[in-house]
Amino acid sequence: MTTRRALTLTSLKGEDNLEIRHVPIPDVGDNDVLINVKFCGLNFAECSLRQGLYSPIPPLPTVPGYECSGVIGQIGSQVTDLKVGDRVVGLKNFGAWSDVVVLPSSDCNVIPDNMSLEDAAAIPVNYLTSYLMLFDQAALKPGDKVFVHMAAGGVGTAVGQLCLTVPDVTVIGTASKAKHKHCLANGIHHPIDYKSLDFVEETRKLFPKGVDIMLDPVGGPTSKKSHTLLRSLGKHIHYGGSSYISGANKTWTSMFSIMWNFFNSGSYSGFGLMERSVLVGGLHVGKMMQDPEYHPVTRRAMTNLLNMYKEEKIKPHIDSVWHFEQIKEAMGRIYSGQNVGKVILNASVMSDKGTQATKK
Ligand SMILES: NC(=O)c1ccc[n+]([C@@H]2O[C@H](COP(=O)([O-])OP(=O)(O)OC[C@H]3O[C@@H](n4cnc5c(N)ncnc54)[C@H](OP(=O)(O)O)[C@@H]3O)[C@@H](O)[C@H]2O)c1
Known about the structure:
CATH architecture of the largest domain: Alpha-Beta Complex
Order of helices and strands: EEEHEEEEHHEHEHEHEHEHHEHHEHEE
Number of strands: 16
CATH topology of the largest domain: Quinone Oxidoreductase, Chain A, domain 1
Bound molecules: NADP nicotinamide-adenine-dinucleotide phosphate
Helix content: 25-40%
Structural class: alpha/beta
Number of helices: 12
Strand content: 25-35%
Number of domains: 2
Mean pLDDT: 93
CATH class of the largest domain: Alpha Beta
Distance between the termini: 38 Å
CATH superfamily of the largest domain: Medium-chain alcohol dehydrogenases, catalytic domain
């Protein structure tokens, strides 16, 4: 039987709960394609999943991963729009961290000639999240003031670049001081060092009335404060809970921190929202991926994003590339907040155990 190498989550405890396993290659259905994977994306979500701080958690052992890029090696009998040899990007509801992936052809897009396979793996989660929040949910329009937390991360970088495609949009974002140069180069006009300054005060100095769109992946008291920055007709979109994650391991202290952040994240009453004429919403691309009803939505957004890349309007910033064998180090970069942009996994076998990640 032919097998594939899959980076597998074996438990939700400890630091060594991800291992490479050799598992059977699934059958290729009539409407499926088989991708020989070159690169996969690593996200905050998988770092949370590893600690059991993600919902939903699939039965273990499981292969994480939402996105991969590679070359089609086989197509199902009913597939007409893709062919063997096409360079593609694929979206998957878990299971993308493998050197061979089988998925429905409708969850797969051919990438433009000018796109590298590394860049392709960096597009789906970060850019779909940003695209759907900005264009589908918040209806971004010329002149809007947009605020994004974690501005130097993969999603923050995508938000800055996508906002540059709409005239006169101003973006304010939180990031460590050392990452401000990256923010400025990627459409974040006003980076705020949230570690030494109060982001609400700094934003009010720039825009006394507040912002039109608040993009909030932090949760906890930061969410409560962020909400105060919304001006009338503003939209506050929740899409993460980074304040719940503190380091690579779950400890009693981190569990206490999760509870504390959860109970201090604020709440909204319908009346309160009505009186201020504001909207509150949320987005979870992972959950959308589980429901085929939304696949046409993500497919349309992916097509638009790939066209934007082709026209050189967007370009992911790759922080570093690591082999499956280096997953601990790769995740460490995210846990410690060192990364600037996207962390990528290389699906090929690491030939030299001493090889360092390719830092971009
Ligand atoms: N709902 C969805 O569908 C969806 C999809 C994608 C991502 N997300 C969420 O969006 C957020 C950003 O994701 P991303 O992929 O852009 O992240 P990322 O690339 O890993 O960026 C993380 C950056 O955020 C900052 N940061 C702030 N709080 C942090 C913390 N507690 N731990 C580590 N870093 C922290 C760090 O930069 P500084 O040095 O500036 O602090 C870090 O470099 C996450 O909360 C993620 O779960 C949600």
